[in-house]
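Below is how a single chain appears once it has passed through the pipeline. First comes the sequence as given, then the structure the pipeline wrote out for it. We keep one example in the README because the format questions we get most often are answered faster by looking than by reading.
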Amino acid sequence: MHPNSAFRPKEDGLAELLVREIGFAAIFAGTPDGPRVAHAPVVLSGDGTTLQFHVARGNALTRHLDGTTALAVVQGPDAYVSASWYADTDQVPTWNYVAIEMEGVAHRLDDAALVAQLDTLSANHEARVGANPPWTRDKMNPALFGKMTGAIIGFEMRISAWRPTIKLSQNKSADERERVIAGMEATGHGALAQLMRHLGGDREGS
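Resulting structure:
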């Protein structure tokens, strides 16, 4: 998490919205063999208090997660910021990025809760895909589905701390931000440029 408070989102719910829309996280935890990470799709509860995910049974982190404090990181768009984009020559290059950190104790889910997680995950993303009818596990051979779910383990992390960083040049003047936005667009980082415009509009209206 960047220490500058300017990079904390001012909008209630923005961090949760980003987690739901991105839907994929790196899960970090310490193990007797050293730090390990797993990469997994995630499901954030409606009230934003828990994060569910599943990892391969053979992952080096899996057997250590139950009851362990973990850190889940959802990474958004990022891009290099050239110092040449600033009018002030006494500047250095930097990086703009979006990252949401969530910390909490992870607990293993039972088989029924794992299947419920998978159903929720597929329903959420099938709605985005727009398939008609959407994919559901009812289309699979139940025995095969059971065999495949046996290869993964589900977890739920109760979130004790949120640490979002939305670093989009908020510490720069409006003119400098516009120059960075133009640079972002010219280098193919349109999503980040749109986020910068969105935040800039909020600042002007506040």
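The radius of gyration is 20 Å.

See the next section for the split statistics.
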